[in-house]
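Dear colleague,

Following up on Tuesday's group meeting, I ran the structure prediction for the two-component complex that the binding team flagged. I've pasted the input sequences exactly as they went in, so you can double-check that nothing got truncated or mislabelled along the way. The structure tokens for the whole assembly follow below. Feel free to forward this to whoever is handling the docking comparison.

Inputs:
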Amino acid sequence: MTPVTAPPLIDSDVLERVLSASLAKGGEMAEVFAEDRQISSAILDDRRIEELSSGRERGAGIRVVIGETTGFAHTADLTESGLLAAAEAAAGVARRGGGRTESVGLPARQSAPEHDFVLPSEVEKSAKLELLSRADDAARSAGAAITQVQVGYGDSRRRVLIASSEGMHAEDDQIRTRFNVSCVATGDTGMQTGFESIARTEGFEVFGRFAVEEIARIAATRALGKLDARPAPSGELPVVLAGGSGGILFHEACGHGLEADHIVKDASVYVGQIGEQVASALVTLVDDGTVGGEWGNYTVDDEGKAAARNVLIENGVLTDYLWDWLRARKEGRPSSGNGRRQSYQHLPMVRMTNTFLLAGKENPDELVAQTPKGVYVAKLGGGQVNTATGDFVFGTSEAYLIEDGKITSPLRDANLIGNGPEVLRRIDAVADDFAMMPGTCGKDGQSVPVGCGQATLRIGGITIGGTAA
Amino acid sequence: MSDLVALAERIVAKAKAGEEIEAYVARGHDIEVRAYDGEVESLSSATTGGIGVRVLVANGSEGARLGFAWAGSLDDEVVESAVDEARDNATFATPDPDVAFATPDGVSATELDLWDPSVADTATDEKVAIALELERRVRAADSRVRQVSSADYGDERVEVALASTTGIRSFTQRTAAFLSVSAIAGEGSDSHTGTGFSVARGFAGLDIDRAGVDAVERSTRMLGATKVPSDRLTVVFDRRVVSTLLSIISSALSGEAVVKGRSFFAGRMGEKVATGSFTLVDDPTDPRAFAAASHDAEGLACRRTVLIDSGTLAGFLYDTVSARRAGTSSTGSAVRGGYSGTPGAGCRALVLQPGHHDQQAILAVVGEGLYVQSVTGVHSGVNPVSGDFSVGVEGLMVRDGELAEPVREITVASTLQRMLQSVLHVGVDIEWLPGIAAGQTLAIGDMQLSGS
């Protein structure tokens, strides 16, 4: 284990000169975001180690804000001349201003925290590949009907540095590791798929805690189970979501709608609802970028603000939205540490980190037993929301019928559709078996890692988009 | 141009004995303007460049090992370390007799003019002005439009050079410009969104009216939408939705998915997989297609491939490796997601053989059913391996052959296999949309609507 220390991506005196130049045409705020990202990945497919890939991307994005307008330019050239050229392009929007002559002085840099993760670069490639083969074997031994297996490994180290004319001068060093298995099972009725993954903001040591064979077995079992699946029902039924089945319900039903960029543009159903009962009293929803090792974690966001625990809904009452610097400035309040960007080539915007529902008190088995007829969702796929209408969908990737309080037939994949505020009000039971799941969140063309979490819960009724009458 | 080709050739020249090298070098310039509330919300501009290097190391009779590395830079020193890294990665891959780079196959590339100088020549002020004008028009068009959440102008210029020790040399360049706008219409507590856009090779080809009118119509006509009871009915899909559907179906037509047993079309060549009116072609040599290209992502000439011919499964799309696995030759269908990705088989320009009616005529013939304006949850609800299909829907009921009341918070479901066998009408109304498939109205019978 090596302490993570490295020289800054850009020296303070260079940053000060670039920020001063960025403001010379009249900008009110200038910011440099520098990034150095190293990524490696490996894919085993069709029984072969098919692709080992390594990549590196370094660069900086410069933002100049004047009034309601942001100018942005980025460059892969981290020399002073490269940065000054980007600064000039970004400042181009600020032509109307008078310019300012005083120079920008930065405070001492807030260094990236030292952590004791096993860095991707310290691990032999052969050790990473061995995981793939072990998972492939485990998946194929789960059943003769497993006809195809793909295993993916990925790691990344992302060093970022943020400096702004408002006195921000911080860096972070983010280590991420992921592992995923996807299987195809073939039977008399055709093919079915199963997927399982882990994804952590940690190093290679995670494989001491997570057995790749178990990840593979879950993916294979999921595909095999659906070979006997019947079409999902069509229409409205009670739905029980298993603990850790995805938590994407909250990500879509309200998470996006609570992002302040949608709020300030009046493009969310949650505008003006602070202090109002927007969900069942069983719902306490938190967004927290500091939860040990979760996929959506960071120390500081991509604007340099420390990640925080933000309570969004407390006992069903809306308490706050999620904020980045730009939208918080408009409202005269601090950012909540949710300004994120995919890379130095993108402008930051309001994003979730790890968004989860706090656990309740019920027993998950009793919750199913108390449901005469419905659908039990063991694992969710992705989802999508229209924040302006609140309508959202989320897909199942492992689901069963509930008949007479018992989990019975497996169901083929389908989307569920609901309206955020309505569905949140219809949550009528929350159990005590909390678990998190990783995911990738896409918004306006940018993808970032996020976490979702929840205990087993029941929605009194939601529309299930199957084909069975 | 020449500097990118020269860089690709310099990389290839680093090959050692027993090695093949392929270099993909790309550079892009782009600009994006977002207007909001009469002001420029953001103006972004950038030049990006990067390389992707594949190294193939011969491994005797067992085949070859492949390694890949990429870098977001065109600097010589970065390039040097990428080659070393790709070479090192190759030592860990499984030797494979089917792994190979493309070799020139004698098919000559279609000359396409995909470069519109107006993208570079138009002043930034004009680009800002068109975004502001788009936003202004949409706000003014209808009193029920209560918000324009974004109005964007964007353009890009992309140049790609490819070279390999196996004789590949190609250079392609293309431009694109787009307008897109998202409107929110509201009445009381009821709100609905609608997007409109226009894409063209250059600034002059953009249709600001079209983008604005679409956003306004699509948002305002949804006002008052309700959830309707579940039903089994005929569904008429809007052109934009059909473009999305064809893109998904095409992933099951990728030779790579077929040869690895991940497609519901696997083993069905020559079988009747769709109704007789359904003929699906991938033709990247048609310059009207957004992703038209002279060369594929391995440097071979792009060509026209018939995939489904009058309902009969007729072809798959192959890159070099998937073709070798399948015992056939590449269809010039290698695609990749920029310099950080490796090639795979995929389509670029799908289009259906047009039928005889436009949307209005199809609605008239269908009589009763559901018109789908937009779908959600495509990635979570459509599975190109199993064929299961379930998507969230916004649209309007079709009554007496015309669009009637709006509906929301419903799904439509079937399987892709069954949908292809239930195609009732293919529209004549081809629209060249951004992405990899054209849009045409499509009517499909016997789908399940889930609602209240």
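Chain B is about 25% helix and 35% strand.

Cheers,
M.
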